[in-house]
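INPUT
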Amino acid sequence: MYAGLREELFEFLRIPSVSAKSEHDADTRRAAEWVLAALRRSGFTTSLIETPGHPVVLGEWRGAGPSAPTVLVYGHYDVQPPEPLHLWSSPPFEPELRDGRIYARGAADNKGQLFVHLKVLEGLLSGGGRLPVNVVVLAEGEEEISSPHLLPVVTEWKDRLAADALIISDSSMFAPGLPSILLSLRGLVYFELRVTGTGRDVHSGIYGGAVPNAATALARMLATLHDDGGRVALPGFYDSVVEWEDEVLDRLRALPFDDAALLAETGASSLVGEDGYTSLERLWLRPTCDVSGLTSGYQGEGAKTVIPALATAKVSFRLVPDQDPVEVGRQFRAHIRAVTPPGVRVEVIDLQGGRPWRANPGGPFFEAARRALGAVFGVEPVLTGEGASIPIVADLAQVLGAEAVLVGLALPGANMHAPDEWFPEEHIRKGIETFTRFYEEIPQGPPPRVGPSPG
Amino acid sequence: MYAGLREELFEFLRIPSVSAKSEHDADTRRAAEWVLAALRRSGFTTSLIETPGHPVVLGEWRGAGPSAPTVLVYGHYDVQPPEPLHLWSSPPFEPELRDGRIYARGAADNKGQLFVHLKVLEGLLSGGGRLPVNVVVLAEGEEEISSPHLLPVVTEWKDRLAADALIISDSSMFAPGLPSILLSLRGLVYFELRVTGTGRDVHSGIYGGAVPNAATALARMLATLHDDGGRVALPGFYDSVVEWEDEVLDRLRALPFDDAALLAETGASSLVGEDGYTSLERLWLRPTCDVSGLTSGYQGEGAKTVIPALATAKVSFRLVPDQDPVEVGRQFRAHIRAVTPPGVRVEVIDLQGGRPWRANPGGPFFEAARRALGAVFGVEPVLTGEGASIPIVADLAQVLGAEAVLVGLALPGANMHAPDEWFPEEHIRKGIETFTRFYEEIPQGPPPRVGPSPG
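OUTPUT
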């Protein structure tokens, strides 16, 4: 890696653009301006879109003309808080190269990966270069605080942002030397269930046996959420789960995945889940239901002989394509109504939701990324899923009408959101080569059709 | 009520013998000495038995001779803490007579009722009076802190304390004007259930679907504790539950009990419980299982997407004659082992236990009490149960080899353990008349056989 290139990235990484902390508001804006300046130098028309929070950076290169496809590159210039500081081997905002790794807050998430895209576009477009596709760069400063203002901006600017492809590099490769393209993200619906029995906590001796017990009732309701085979038992829950093509499943099953490593990572003594699926399928392609919290009655040491008036649970579902959070919410409420035991009242509170997302394997941009990764890394990229949820991806793809392609360049164990975050120095160069090649691999001509075929 | 009698009781009530508070240790001892002096005045041989806590008062009158039956009267001279003080209409240790009620901490629980017995015995024995039965009075000072030292004392002194009848007045009548004799007390076993899945809380997106969820597992286990008819589902749980005689059940069912009042008292919107039984049977004669607390994972506001490593529940069973807490503990552990879902480890911790107790309707002392109450109150006493547990009753009855007879003289709503505790002044007189009559009603002659008949 050229020393000049590295020094340029280090300059970006030195800006402590911690979006969560108002004392860093000026730094966060400085990072936005850094991106803006880089885009201008490459020949982009730029806008700094103000929001009630941190600004959105917009860069547009429309040189391919209105009939050519448009690629939108999304990234973010904000970073997680660096705390706890004492666990860092070098200061989080003083980037350092050690053993081929660039250590800094934001090195992987997302400045290093956004930097790759900026350098690709600089290489291709600066000094009057041209591309057969139009390119829009959208960089937000609130990704680490759940993007509260991105969707309103995107919706307002949606004519300007309309794109055929949405390219995001904000995740990791499957393994060192093994590049990957994301197949899907799980969605989420999260509820609080509040069960009320008696009007106040009452004595379990004096009243036990004749009055409803909220904690017992809650447990009985939660026990109906799965069947004995580990499947979620809401009627209709699996109706819109997509069946992946055999080729996709075969490739997934061929991945070198180690259940023992999963046990070690989580400290579980054995793995469990939906019958008939491998761990990777359970984590990536299958929906789940998990109880994240229980609260009721006496929680201190020893015994208190009480019947709790109230029992609550945090219950969430991870959704897979094409489940709809609103529809699953309806199924959950209907199921809860059906299994509510006599004597208790139940309230279901919506806490969070986001749609699942799936890639379009075989699509022109997906295939362009696949070919580019294969050429640069010398190995066919693997297809991976992601069990966690990034609701903005599905939302952006939908509003923009774009095919999203997610190609992460960090490596497993990159310590995103943790001390000693790092990014492999070599992946700066390989990333630049990959995405330069990506633009070459996009089929020429008018934009390919996106979305379901008619009829 | 004679003014002198009232003043004497007020003197006893003025002593703040709060056993739970070490700053009242001297007061508590003063109350013990007050009882001791009263017994001595009546002609009792007295002992103050020291314990690591508050002393036990022992009074013995053996004038009926070794072949006559022995009646042991149990009571306690300690009281509950009076707090919160601001909710008292008059100071807790300045007894006051208002509208026929004596207000003071301990008026009902238990000084007022113990006083009744002391005055009965004074009336019958002082100045050389005689009885056809021997009488032992046992008054402890740690009832309100779970009697930690009583059973060791009783066991050590059991030859001196051996009795044919154990008489306790420490509860309430069923209703004003309607005296009652206790038929049974429920026992208790109380456990903490600790379910461990993963080694630490893990992300529900990244790991959800492939690792065990401790909270879900706990809920599924708790849901197996009852069947759909509200019966406890431990195998063998009902095997040693006694079937009460039809006459007892008929009398219980004839009691004027109001489900609407139970709803109002507990704030429940409807009553539930074991199919086929009335509320009173469910509360008094049937065993139960209740969950008293649930703790797991995230309990704060909003959503946290976590799979909890640990989930705990407080689970207790109220037992009825002749269930055995140790045997039910075995059944619970065996059941939990049988229903533990794959992937989790379960620990069952014993927290508390006590045996149920039942009276001996038709027994000589039970019948003597019944006749005495009927004569004094002018109405046949009702038989009642008690859903709560007083483990010391079963233990005392067993160690002493005695038939226990529990006759409470307080009234419902007496605010035992609460501010404005009270005892009806009229029941001092009626109580003295009742128990004076009781001694007359005991059949003459050698002690009746106690316990199951041979063969």
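end of record. Chain B is about 30% helix and 20% strand.
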